[in-house]
């Protein structure tokens, strides 16, 4: 019961802090300004189109490759746990796995997958 | 003495953030403000407390200036600087609350008004344009955009972007944005209409020149068309022009302190500064950072004359045909490549060459000439503005800015040149 009370106090404290900060932010910030002053600054002209558009993230291929290799790191955690017990055999197995990945990187490199799109 | 006034006193000690923009005839005076420690030129009106227009306004420049004025967060100040004894600017009254300052007292006036503003005095004046949305919120459609689905309608009076083919085979939104004419990284008055997909400028067009129809600018180069002028004077003016360009280019490249030092050198450069300019040239030739920034960017191989043509290996220089220059041992300098890097190196090398010529020329004069080689090529129609759209199409934004800066465009001169017969 004491734990529940403590949790409630923590919850109330952080909710209160959050609301206080929100209020302070609103109270301190200047008024939002007029419509002409809110348009983005492009050097003296207003925008021709609405900002609601799909912006091309040109690093997306790079991001996917990064994610793929990042996920492969997950396999190395259980391997690291049993590495000392299994000995050299586990070392070779991981070396094989990594070599295949490196071949994949070299292939992607040759195909130009890492060039900035 | 409350906390508020103590803070105001502290704030008044800091440099005044000002959005400085150059009107007709004010480009170099506006540049000089970068040397002023009590003024901090801002790169956007949102970061400024004051608008400072240097020179004359034109009808075409006025809407951009007024929008920049409204985008400075209130309370704000507005100033216009005109040379001493110059006629009034009939358009000055169109910028609300603007205070016209003549002659050398601009910085003092701005500082006084800013200190007053921080202390709660003064006239933080209102907006020029009314607070009216271009189109009211209509509340139609799932997001209130006035249409169906995510792609319909005209939210807030602005159409959504259309889609177009991208260079990687996708069909993506193409934003048409107009950048300029008071964009700080561009030469004053340059407006580009850019079709952007992501950060790639798919299509670029040059907007109207706001200085069109303005008075022809003078200067020693235009004078040489009509009468004899000292070679030393011409060459010092050329070296200063190149160094001023270098200062601005360094600032845009993200080296404002170095740019400020070069600008201070440009203001007083003479034959005695030959060593300093030579050191500058050597450091630019050795520097890897510049090669990384500008190497291979914006190659223009055409013979367009001037430093841009000579940076592409074309030894065309109107001075080469003059006996007065040949007597001084003049030969046109050229660089290979024609990219932005070659143009940087070309101008600095020419600045050094000009100072050497000025030192050797003594009292020799030249002129009146039929063709005068100015710092941007022979006076007359300038082909660089027509060259620009083809040069920068397909570039990423950073390369586009590097290329535009490396061309050393001067729209005021281009407007005046239209009136000079070739």
Outline the structure in words.
The complex is a heterodimer of chains A (117) and B (422). The mean pLDDT of chain A is 86. By secondary structure, chain A is mainly α. Chain A contains 4 helices and no strands. Chain A is flat. Chain A has helices at 2-28, 35-38, 60-86, 88-111. By secondary structure, chain B is an alpha/beta fold. Chain B has 3 domains: 3-118, 3-Layer(aba) Sandwich (Rossmann fold); 163-206, no CATH class; 219-417, Cytochrome-c3 Hydrogenase, chain B (Orthogonal Bundle). Chain B has 15 helices and 14 strands. In chain B, the strands form 4 sheets. In chain B, strands 2-1-3-4-5 form a 5-stranded parallel β-sheet, sandwiched between helices. A 5-stranded antiparallel β-sheet of chain B has the order 6-7-8-9-14. In chain B, a hairpin with a 5-residue loop joins strand 6 and strand 7. Chain B is globular. The termini of chain B are far apart. The model of chain B has no long low-confidence stretch (mean pLDDT 87). Chain A binds chain B through residues 30, 33-37, 39, 41-50, 52-58, 117, and chain B through 44-46, 63-65, 67-68, 70-71, 73-74, 127-134, 145, 154-156, 158-161, 166-168, 170, 172-173, 175-184, 186, 191, 197-200.
Count of DSSP-assigned helices of chain B: 15
**Low-confidence region ranges of chain B:** none
Pair of chains with the largest interface and how many residues each contributes: A-B, 25 and 50 residues
Distance between the termini of chain A: 58 Å
Number of extended strands of chain B: 14
Rg of chain A, alpha carbons: 27 Å
Counting helices, strands and paired strands, the structural category of chain A is mainly alpha
Spatial extent as radius of gyration of chain B: 24 Å
Based on secondary structure, the structural category of chain B is alpha/beta
Helix content class of chain B: 25-40%
**Rough outline of chain B:** globular
Number of domains of chain B: 3
Termini separation of chain B comes to 67 Å
Could you report the average pLDDT of chain A, rounded to the nearest whole number? 86
Order of helices and strands of chain A: HHHH
On the 0-100 scale, what is the average pLDDT of chain B? Answer: 87
Anisotropy-based shape of chain A = flat
CATH superfamily of the largest domain in chain B: Cytochrome-c3 Hydrogenase, chain B
């Amino acid at each position: 019961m004491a734990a529940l009370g403590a949790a409630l106090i923590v919850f109330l404290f952080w909710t209160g802090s959050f609301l206080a900060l929100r209020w302070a932010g609103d109270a301190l910030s200047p008024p939002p300004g007029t419509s002409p002053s809110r348009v983005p600054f492009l050097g003296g002209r207003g925008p021709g189109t609405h900002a609601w558009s799909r912006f091309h993230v040109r690093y997306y291929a790079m991001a996917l490759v990064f994610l793929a290799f990042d996920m492969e790191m997950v396999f190395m955690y259980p391997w690291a746990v049993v590495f000392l017990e299994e000995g050299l055999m586990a070392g070779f197995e991981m070396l094989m796995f990594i070599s295949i990945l490196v071949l994949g990187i070299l292939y992607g490199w040759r195909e130009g997958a890492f060039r900035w799109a | 003495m409350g906390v508020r006034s103590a803070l105001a006193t502290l704030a008044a000690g800091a440099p005044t953030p000002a959005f400085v923009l150059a009107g007709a005839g004010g480009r170099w005076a506006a540049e000089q403000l970068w040397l002023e420690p009590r003024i901090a030129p801002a790169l956007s009106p949102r970061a400024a407390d004051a608008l400072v227009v240097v020179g004359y306004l034109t009808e075409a420049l006025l809407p951009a200036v007024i929008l920049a004025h409204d985008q400075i967060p209130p309370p704000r100040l507005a100033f216009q600087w005109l040379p001493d004894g110059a006629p009034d600017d009939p358009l000055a009254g169109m910028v609300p609350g603007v205070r016209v300052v003549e002659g050398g007292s601009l910085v003092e006036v701005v500082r006084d008004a800013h200190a007053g503003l921080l202390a709660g005095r003064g006239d933080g004046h209102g907006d020029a344009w009314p607070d009216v949305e271009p189109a009211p919120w209509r509340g139609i459609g799932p997001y209130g955009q006035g249409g169906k689905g995510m792609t319909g309608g005209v939210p807030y009076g602005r159409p959504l972007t259309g889609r177009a083919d991208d260079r990687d085979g996708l069909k993506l939104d193409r934003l048409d944005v107009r950048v300029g004419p008071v964009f700080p990284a561009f030469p004053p008055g340059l407006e580009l209409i850019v079709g952007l997909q992501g950060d790639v400028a798919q299509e670029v067009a040059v907007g109207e020149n706001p200085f069109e129809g303005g008075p022809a600018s003078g200067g020693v180069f235009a004078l040489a068309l009509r009468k004899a002028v000292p070679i030393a004077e011409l060459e010092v003016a050329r070296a200063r022009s190149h160094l001023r360009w270098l200062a601005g280019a360094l600032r845009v490249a993200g080296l404002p302190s170095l740019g400020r030092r070069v600008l201070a050198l440009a203001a007083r450069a003479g034959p005695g500064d030959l060593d300093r300019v030579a050191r500058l040239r050597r450091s630019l030739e050795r520097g890897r950072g510049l090669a990384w920034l500008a190497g291979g960017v914006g190659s223009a191989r055409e013979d367009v004359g001037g430093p841009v043509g000579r940076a592409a290996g074309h030894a065309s220089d109107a001075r080469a045909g003059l006996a007065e220059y040949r007597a001084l041992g003049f030969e046109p300098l050229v660089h290979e490549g024609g990219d932005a890097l070659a143009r940087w190196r070309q101008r600095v090398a020419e600045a050094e060459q000009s100072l050497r010529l000025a030192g050797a020329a003594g009292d020799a004069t030249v002129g009146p000439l039929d063709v005068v080689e100015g710092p941007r090529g022979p006076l007359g129609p300038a082909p660089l503005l027509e060259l620009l759209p083809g040069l920068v199409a397909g570039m990423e934004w950073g390369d586009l800015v590097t290329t535009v800066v490396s061309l050393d465009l001067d729209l005021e001169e281009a407007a005046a040149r239209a009136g000079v017969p070739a």
